[in-house]
Amino acid sequence: MFTVEKACLVVVDVQGKLATIVDDSEMVIENVAKLVQAMQALEVPILWLEQNPSRLGGTALEIAQHLEGQPIPKMAFSACQEEAFVEAMKENGRTQFIVTGIETHICVYQSARHLKEQGFEVEVVVDAVSSRTKANKDIGLTKMHALGIYPTSTEMILYELLQRADHEHFKTILKLVK
């Protein structure tokens, strides 16, 4: 089970025009925004990345408006190949990573794979990731699952983190998912 004390949300490259043209883009952007808001209420750290932001643009406004601080810019497809990301991981000391973003078969896959290879628990939020095509999303999810990176959904991971209906943030999370 993922817990509030061990979890960290990783938001991978939901930015620029690409964020609007991936398969099911509206759902993905909406679910990433829900996850960001929920993690802030639960005080779970969020690491957000932007691939080559000078060329691809910034994080989608629907998500960025809920984020604090600055994104971690990257040129590598895997977040784990960027020193700033590695340092941020060390600082927060978390061992469970909830991965969201685009594109599932490239940056999400490589980041999740490298996290798993480093011994962390990793889950990918299936309704908060996408690729330009559904086929590429499916291939990325299949390869991650084969590595032991299990699928979850926005609602499932949030209720897993809450664990109880009498959690102090239950009503906040309920409003986000309904």
Describe the 3D structure.
By secondary structure, the protein is α/β, with parallel strands linked by helices. 48% of the residues lie in helices and 20% in strands. It has nine helices and six strands.
Q: Can you describe this structure in just a few lines?
A:
With 178 residues, the protein is of the alpha/beta class. It has helices at 16-21, 25-42, 53-56, 61-64, 83-92, 104-117, 134-146, 154-162, 170-177; strands at residues 7-12, 46-51, 72-74, 96-102, 121-130, 150-152. It is built from 9 helices and 6 strands; from the N terminus they run E-H-H-E-H-H-E-H-E-H-E-H-E-H-H.
Task: Detail the topology: elements first, then pairings.
Blueprint: E1 7-12, H1 16-21, H2 25-42, E2 46-51, H3 53-56, H4 61-64, E3 72-74, H5 83-92, E4 96-102, H6 104-117, E5 121-130, H7 134-146, E6 150-152, H8 154-162, H9 170-177
Parallel strand pairs: 1-2, 1-4, 2-3, 4-5, 5-6
Helix pairs in contact: 2-9, 6-7
Quote the beta fraction.
Answer: 15-25%
Total DSSP helices: 9
Q: Kindly, what is the distance between the CA atoms of the first and last residues, rounded to a whole number of angstroms?
A: 23 Å
Beta strands, count: 6
Strand order of the largest sheet: 3-2-1-4-5-6
Largest sheet: 6 strands, parallel
Rg, rounded, reads: 15 Å
